[in-house]
Amino acid sequence: MAALTMGLAEAKNNFSRLTAEVNRTGKSVTILKNNKPWVVIQPARENSNATDVAVDFMDEYADVFEELAK
């Protein structure tokens, strides 16, 4: 699954719309700064613990972490 990405300026200018879309679709968006992953906006999950969230995040972005480790 390809990750959704957006530049920092675009995210800043459309923050309300962006967060509404993330919440509606349940898909996270990676915000890029200088064309590099900077932060991830993801919907809040009810009834999940920090470990589950961390594992899901690591699984979903394993390719990004591999690229950053180079």
Describe this structure in words.
With about 70 residues, this protein is of the alpha+beta class. Helices cover about 50% and strands about 20% of the residues. A three-stranded mixed β-sheet has the order 1-2-3. A hairpin with a 2-residue loop joins strand 2 and strand 3. It starts with a strand and ends with a helix. The model has no long low-confidence stretch (mean pLDDT about 85).
Describe the structure in brief.
With 70 residues, this protein is α+β, with helices and mostly antiparallel strands. The chain has helices at 8-13, 15-25, 50-60, 62-69, and strands spanning 4-7, 29-33, 36-41.
* Amino- and carboxy-terminal Cα gap: 22 Å
Oligomer: single chain
Using DSSP, what is the number of strands? 3
Determine the fraction of residues in helical runs and give it as a percent range: 40-55%
Q: Using the CA coordinates, give the radius of gyration.
A: 13 Å
Structural category: alpha+beta
Low-confidence spans: none
Structure annotation, total helices: 4
**Residue share in β-strands:** 15-25%
Main pleated sheet: 3 strands, mixed
Instruction: List the strand order in the largest sheet.
Output: 1-2-3
Order of helices and strands: EHHEEHH
Based on CA inertia axes, which overall geometry fits?
flat
Mean pLDDT: 86
